[in-house]
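Budget justification aside, the reviewers requested a transparent look at the raw inputs and outputs of the sequence design task funded under Objective 1. We therefore reproduce one unedited record. The lines immediately below are the structure tokens for a 300-residue chain.
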């Protein structure tokens, strides 16, 4: 990682050939003097940017302290190697002195949370909601089954699911955690695997909560009311009443049942044999007929 940082600081990007290095003055000009603020959050301020070559992007300001420098280059190294249709793409970066920025695809329709809960926006139709569930599952499968090492440091919620101009969902806010390979090798292998499995369970749970939000149009809430509802023995009796009123009767009943069953399986407490993201993805894509949990059915 230190070698990568030296290459980038010297003006090259040989370690990340598909990531563009921007000059600070390009960032400043594209954001109109950093006046085009989109959002300010714990991970920095984000700006809407239009570059001289026509590129429209979202620029996020990274921490400018010396302690945050290493974290910036670790994040750059990770994000620059991710390549998936349903993960927000890193276009480039800028690092001059203490000013550090990351340049991402601009998501024209902002976050899924805004699409679902902003009363001034046109409600998402059923087909779009179903595709969001599929898109997010595809992103998660890529992150922790096809990346080496697996990427687990991502929070699955409607604020981190971004919607492009065509309402294609893309997962954002993917970051890194410290990973000491030597320490990992010396530690108990089964203990490390236990931590990996625990993190997978947490992400599957979050995915189930996201599905409930898509179906009901309700925010999950700090008390977990939606999870409590879907785990109740008689939840099927109220399922159709829980559907987002903005959908009217335009949803597909079979697809609704499938999503609710997935959400129930994902959020079931203490279930070590939890259904996996790859299986969920193939089920939603119609490539497998069941989830291997035939007992989970909903009567008409």
């Amino acid at each position: 990682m230190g070698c990568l940082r030296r290459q980038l600081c010297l003006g090259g990007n040989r370690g990340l050939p598909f990531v563009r290095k921007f000059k600070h003055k390009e960032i400043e000009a594209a954001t109109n003097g950093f006046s085009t603020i989109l959002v300010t959050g714990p991970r920095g301020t984000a700006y809407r940017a239009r570059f001289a070559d026509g590129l429209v992007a979202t620029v996020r300001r990274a921490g400018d302290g010396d302690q945050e420098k290493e974290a910036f280059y670790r994040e750059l190294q990770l994000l620059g190697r991710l390549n998936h249709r349903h993960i927000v793409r890193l276009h480039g970066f800028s690092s001059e002195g203490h000013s550090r920025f990351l340049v991402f695809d601009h998501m024209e329709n902002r976050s899924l949370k805004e699409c679902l809960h902003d009363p001034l926006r046109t409600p998402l139709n059923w087909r779009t909601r179903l595709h969001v569930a599929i898109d997010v599952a595809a992103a998660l499968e890529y992150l922790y089954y096809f990346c080496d090492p697996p990427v687990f440091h991502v929070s699955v919620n409607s604020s981190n699911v971004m919607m492009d101009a065509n309402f294609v969902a893309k997962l954002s806010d993917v970051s890194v955690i410290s990973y000491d390979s030597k320490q990992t090798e010396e530690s108990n292998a089964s203990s490390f695997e236990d931590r990996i499995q625990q993190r997978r369970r947490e992400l599957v749970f979050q995915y189930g909560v996201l599905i409930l939000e898509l179906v009901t149009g309700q925010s999950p809430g700090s008390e977990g009311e939606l999870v409590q509802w879907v785990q109740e023995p008689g939840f099927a009796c109220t399922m159709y009443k829980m559907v987002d009123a903005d959908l009217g009767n335009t949803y597909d009943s079979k697809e609704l049942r499938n999503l609710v069953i997935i959400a129930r399986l994902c959020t079931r407490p203490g279930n070590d044999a939890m259904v996996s993201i790859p299986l969920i993805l193939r089920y939603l894509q119609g490539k497998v007929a069941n989830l291997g949990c035939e007992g989970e059915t909903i009567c008409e």
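DSSP finds eleven helices and eight strands in the chain. Residues 178-184 have pLDDT under 50 and may be disordered. Computational costs for records of this kind are itemized in the attached budget.
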